């Protein structure tokens, strides 16, 4: 079973690539964002520590139902590298433990030809060391900006914040095993052909 890390900048279309892979090939998709989100819910492994560490930075950290207000937390850490590092130090180890547990279970079960780990912070979290290959999803910056504005309603200022906070494209290209092109001109049929060639 091949272990593939799927990474790329925000708006590059990692989720689209993962969706095509799972629809057309015998591939299991793991989203580290989804795992982290679940682990921050009430009763999750990260919930208590996030509240303990970040409740002093905003009055809006908790919603009325006691769940963590993720937009408020994002606002706290987005422009403060030290606080972002603190949040990552809480969430990353728990996410990696869960990813490794899923992979071990699937290796024993033998149900899939490959596992695709979708993650933006593949190198920061050390997930690349778990992978046989790293696929970098590439889309031009203007395409990513358009997707973020249209699909997520992000302002130019927020998009700039995300772009400025991510590693340079050259580093992704240098460190990845394969590049998955995903510009506006790439169709689902094109993506099927690309993935088939890489698997």
Overall description:
- This protein has 199 residues and is an alpha/beta fold.
- It has one domain (2-44, 90-198): P-loop containing nucleotide triphosphate hydrolases (Rossmann fold, 3-Layer(aba) Sandwich).
- Helix content is 53%, strand content 13%.
- It has nine helices and five strands; from the N terminus they run E-H-E-H-H-H-H-E-E-H-H-H-E-H.
- It has helices at residues 14-24, 32-39, 47-54, 70-78, 81-109, 141-152, 156-165, 169-175, 188-198; strands spanning 2-7, 27-31, 114-118, 133-138, 178-181.
- A five-stranded parallel beta sheet has the order 2-3-1-4-5, with helices on both faces.
- Helix 2 crosses helix 5 (81-109).
- The longest helix is centred in the middle third of the chain and has 29 residues, at 81-109.
- The radius of gyration is 17 Å and the shape is globular.
- It starts with a strand and ends with a helix.
Series of secondary-structure elements, N-terminal to C-terminal: EHEHHHHEEHHHEH
Which spans of ≥5 residues are poorly predicted at pLDDT below 50? none
Q: What's the number of domains?
A: 1
CATH architecture group name:
3-Layer(aba) Sandwich
Cα radius of gyration in angstroms: 17 Å
Order of strands in the sheet with most strands: 2-3-1-4-5
Q: Within the CATH hierarchy, at the fold level, what is the topology?
A: Rossmann fold
Please state the overall shape, judged from the principal axes of the Cα atoms: globular
SS strand fraction:
5-15%
The major β-sheet equals: 5 strands, parallel
Number of strands: 5
Mean pLDDT: 92
The CATH class designation is Alpha Beta
Q: What percent of residues adopt helix (DSSP H or I)?
A: 40-55%
Distance between the termini: 11 Å
Number of helices: 9
CATH superfamily: P-loop containing nucleotide triphosphate hydrolases
Structural class computed from helices and strand pairing:
alpha/beta
């Amino acid at each position: 079973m091949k272990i593939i890390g799927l990474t790329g900048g925000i708006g590059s279309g990692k989720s689209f690539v993962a969706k095509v892979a799972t629809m057309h090939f015998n591939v299991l998709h793991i989203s580290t964002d989804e795992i982290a989100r679940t682990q921050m819910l009430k009763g999750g492994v990260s919930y208590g520590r996030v509240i303990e560490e970040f409740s002093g930075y905003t009055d809006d950290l908790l919603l009325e139902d006691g769940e963590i207000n993720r937009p408020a937390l994002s606002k706290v850490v987005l422009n403060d590298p030290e606080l972002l590092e603190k949040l990552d130090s809480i969430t990353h180890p728990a996410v990696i433990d869960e990813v490794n547990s899923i992979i071990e279970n699937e290796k024993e079960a033998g149900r899939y030809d490959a596992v695709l780990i979708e993650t933006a912070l593949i190198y920061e979290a050390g997930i690349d060391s778990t992978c046989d290959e790293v696929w970098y999803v590439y889309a031009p910056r203007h395409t990513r900006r358009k997707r973020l504005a249209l699909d997520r309603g992000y302002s130019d200022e927020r998009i700039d914040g995300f772009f400025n906070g991510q590693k340079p494209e050259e580093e992704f290209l240098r460190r990845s095993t394969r590049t998955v092109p995903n510009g506006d001109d790439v169709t689902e049929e094109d993506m099927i052909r690309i993935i088939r060639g890489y698997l």
